[in-house]
Amino acid sequence: MSRAARTARSNAAGPEPQYLKVKNHLREGIASGHWVAGDLLPSEGALVAQFEVSRMTVNRALRELVQEGLIERVQGVGSFVAQLHRISSTLNVRDVHEEIVERGHAYESRVHALTRGKATPQQAAELGMKRCAPVFLSLITHLENGHPIQCEERVVNPACAPDYLAQDFTRLTPTHYLLDVAPLSEARYMIEAALPGEVEARLLGISRRAPCLVVKRITYSRGVAVTSVKLTHPGARYQLQGSFSA
Q1: Burial letters for 204-230: b for 16+ Cβ neighbours within 10 Å, e otherwise?
Q2: What domains, with CATH codes, occur in the chain?
Q3: pTM for this predicted structure
Q4: Residue-by-residue pLDDT tens, the chain, 246 positions
């Protein structure tokens, strides 16, 4: 899109609210690592002067960042980048290895693909990237007592996990690794009943007509999308259980 077209589109949509300019400036600085956990952010007065807005506008931007868990405010001191606290596994961003071991069963994984790729339009939209941007791709089957119970198709943002392709995912799961290198701050889910595709049916050893439980999830760290994953489970072999808490 040309610069003129972008300008026209922006004008048609109306000017960006002033508080969003402040909020996005701080969010992007945190996401890029310019400010890290514990850092003191610019004062309200400094932000008022920098953006030439009212103190009320700055206060709204800071208040929304607090609500999103990205910053903490200390009265009389200032605003700090929040410490990342891993969300409890009861949120169901769980390691399938741990689930199987908790049941007293034997865990095994088979890595079918671990490679570089280019983001499709859908993957780019999910991860907030440009189309055809470099991504990491993996396809793994997880087994319980020798029976496949989960087909994991994953796309990873290389900026969040640059060493992803160097991992041995027969020894640890992608979930375990990614939670360590990019601590979770947010997750979005979609759960549906569906029939398996050709690849999922073959890897899970089931019929194309066998009902499956499919979980699609995007996880974020400091407001940046880390990974998008599709988890396909044979309906006859798997139950989704848990609660939600932080």
Answers
A1: bebeeebebbbbbbbbbbbbbbbbbbb
A2: 3-81 (1.10.10.10), 89-234 (3.40.1410.10)
A3: 0.63
A4: 444 444 444 444 456 788 999 999 998 888 777 888 889 999 999 999 999 999 999 999 998 888 877 888 888 889 998 876 543 434 456 788 888 888 899 999 999 999 999 999 999 999 999 999 999 999 999 999 999 999 999 999 999 999 999 999 999 999 999 999 998 888 888 888 899 999 999 999 999 999 999 999 999 998 899 999 999 999 877 666 554 444
